[in-house]
Amino acid sequence: MSDSPFLLPQPPRVTADEARDTARLWKGMADHLATLRDMAGARHAMQESQWWMAHAIALGQPTPPPEPSKD
Fold first, then answer.
1. Could you give the maximum distance between any two Cα atoms of the chain, in Å?
2. CA 26, CA 46: separation in Å to the nearest integer?
């Protein structure tokens, strides 16, 4: 067993617009692969598109301002 902790890969630092554009690129690739009858590739590209769109939505959500300290 390894002594190093298991770390999940961190999502790239992009803006919500960049993430949305990446999702659209993956969607276009999925559509193109589907026309070529590459269903496994189309499925993978669609999953990537959905992940990037969810990431774009999460980045676009406003964060609440920090609460003032009660000191």
1. 64
2. 7
